[in-house]
Design goal:
The structure is a single chain. Helix content is 31%, strand content 27%. With 188 residues, it is an alpha/beta fold. The chain has a seven-stranded mixed β-sheet, with helices on both faces. The longest helix is centred in the C-terminal third of the chain and has 15 residues. It is globular, with a radius of gyration of 15 Å. The mean pLDDT is 97.
């Protein structure tokens, strides 16, 4: 059986930041599950930039079913974790079941890929202290408050943690994550 990868997300996650790693990892031969607060059809969003706006806009995106509720996840069954961005991390960081899942991946030093606002989740479990990360640039102060060294770069690799700013950085983010993942949990 191929190694399993867990994606943790919820409503208002950025569509591309869920679907791109989901499809890319499956293409590579990994088995991928999506977990959310409950088993339901999730409503993702599309963030884009419009002329004259100081920040991004948000439009409805894809819908996709969650395979598992956070309470059903056994982290020991998974080789790695993916944390998409969007607005979902703003409320997901308050979920105690998700915080337990996240902590188990970091405690076991398993590969973790995070993007955009996803690092709000890893900050919530104090797993960024002393690490180098990137995130959506507006989170620079949040990352520093979490004890991380923020780098405004396409992708930052710090051990088994691979972070990226946002969906325009997908190619480099997944390329770097797959390098870490293949070393820790190759598809045979």
């Amino acid at each position: 059986m191929p190694p399993k990868i867990l994606i943790v997300t919820g409503d208002a996650a950025e569509s591309l930041e869920v679907m791109y790693p989901y499809q890319r990892l499956r293409e590579e031969g990994y088995d991928v599950d999506i977990a959310a607060p409950s088993r339901k059809k999730l409503q993702f969003v599309v963030h884009d930039f419009e002329p004259g706006f100081d920040t991004y806009t948000e439009k409805p995106g894809y819908t996709w079913p969650a395979d598992l509720a956070f309470a059903e996840v056994d982290p020991g069954r998974y080789a790695a974790l993916v944390i998409p961005g969007g607005r979902a991390p703003e409320y997901l960081r308050n979920d105690p079941e998700l915080r337990k899942i996240l902590k188990s991946f970091f405690d076991a030093d398993k590969p973790v890929a995070q993007i955009c606002h996803g690092p709000l989740l890893t900050a919530a479990i104090d797993s960024l202290r002393g690490r180098r990360v990137t995130a959506y640039p507006a989170l620079e102060l949040d990352m520093q408050a979490a004890g991380a060294t923020f780098q405004d770069a396409e992708t930052v690799v710090d051990g088994t943690l691979v972070s990226a700013r946002a969906w325009p950085d997908h190619s480099r983010w997944m390329r770097e994550f797959l390098t870490v993942l293949r070393a820790k949990a190759p598809v045979t």
